[in-house]
Amino acid sequence: MKVVSLVGARPxxxxxxxxxxxxxxxxxxxxxxHSGQHYDFNMSEVFFxxxxxxxxxxxxxxxxxxxGEQTGKTLIEFEKVLIKEKPDLVILYGDTxxxxxxxxxxxxxxxxVAHVEAGLRQEPKDMPEEVNRVLTDRISKYKFCPSKIxxxxxxxxxxxxxxxITGDVMYDIFLRFQKSVNGEKVLKKYAxxxxxxxxxxxxxxxxxxxxxxxxxxxxxxxxxxxxxxIITPLHPRTVKRIHEFGLENVISKDVKVIEPIGYxxxxxxxxxxxxxxxxxxxxQKECYFAGVPGVxxxxxxxxxxxxxxxxxxxxxxxxxxxxxxxxxxxxxLEGMDNIYGDGKAAKKIAKIIKGxxx
Length: 358
Ligand code: UD1
What we know:
By secondary structure, the protein is an alpha/beta fold. The protein is built from 16 helices and 13 strands. It has helices spanning about 10-25, 45-50, 65-85, 95-110, 130-140, 150-155, 170-180, 185-190, 205-210, 210-225, 235-245, 265-270, 280-290, 305-310, 320-325, 345-355, and strands at about 1-5, 30-35, 60, 90-95, 110-115, 140-145, 165, 200, 230-235, 255-260, 275-280, 295, 310-315. Helix 5 (about 130-140) links the parallel strand 5 (about 110-115) and strand 6.
C-alpha cells in the first residue's frame, strides 16, 4: 500500500511527525509532500528538524497569497504529484488551505482521502478553516476524529460511514516531547520563571486583520505585562499587520515579543506557563494537556469540551475579559482526563489504514 501525505503549515508538521512514524512501523509506504504554504525558516524548517520529519519528496512552492491563490496553486501542483505517484490513499491534516486543496485534487482523481482531525466545527461558519474542514470531511473516506464531540458533529451532518474515534495525534506527540525536552534550559533562555509568566500567541485573520480587534488584544497584552511577564512568539502575519496599522506603540515594551519558535520550545513554555492566551487551535488544547488554564481569543471553538470543563475561557477580542481570563480564571472541573484519547491515536490511525481492527 502506498500513501501520499500532504502538509504545508505548522500544525500539520506536528501531526505528520507521529502519524508518519506509525505508518512506517506498520510497513505502509509513505511519500511526503510539502505544499510550501509556510516557508519561513521559523515556520517550517525548524519543525522538520526538531520533529525529525522525513524530507518531503516534493515541495510545491505555493507560498503566500489570497486564499484562492493558495488553494488553487496547491490543487494544480498536487494533482501532478498524484498523477505521477498513483497512491492508494491521500492523508490530510486539519483545516488549512493545503488540506482543502489536497482533498479536491484527490477526489477529482478518484483517490481515497483520510482526514486526520475530522469532525471539528465552530462559529463563525465563514472562517476559512471552517470552510476547509466541512468540505474535506465531505470528500474523505476515512474520518479520524480526535474527540466524541467531533463524531457527534459528523452525525448531525448525516456522516456516519468511515468515522473513527482515534483520539488526538497532537496529544501523542505532546506527551513524547514533554518527557524529553529540557524545560529548565528553555526557561533560562527566555529569562522566565515557572508558573510566573503568560504565554501568548495570535495569528487568526479575524483577530490580526481587523485594526480594532488587534489593538484591543495588544492593549490586553500590555495590561497583563504590568502584573506578570508575558512572552509572545508572533506569527509573521501579525507582525506585518501591527506595522501596517501603525500599532507599534499600543504594545508595551514590557511584552516580550519573539520570533516563532520550534515545537520543543513551545512544549516547554506551555508546560511551565501560569496561563496561555491564544487563538491557535492547537495551543488551546496543548495547555490543557499540560494542565495550564487557557484564555481563547475566539467567539467559539472546535474544542468546546475544554470550555465546558472550564479549562479554557472564550474572551473573543475583549480587552477586559482577556485580562480577567488570566488573573481570575475559573477553576477547571476535575476528572476531565483523557478527553483526547490515550496517547496512541497515531497508532490506531495506521492500523485502520492497514486494514486491521483497533
Ligand atoms: C494557516 C492556517 C491555519 C493554521 C495556521 C498555523 C489556513 C487558511 N490557515 O494560517 O488554519 O492554524 O496556518 O500557523 O490555511 N507568512 C510568512 N511566512 C510563512 C508563512 C506565512 O510570512 O512562513 C505570512 C504571509 O504574509 C501570509 C500570512 O503569513 O500571507 C498568512 O499565512 P497563511 O499560510 O495564509 O495562513 P496562516 O495564518 O499561517
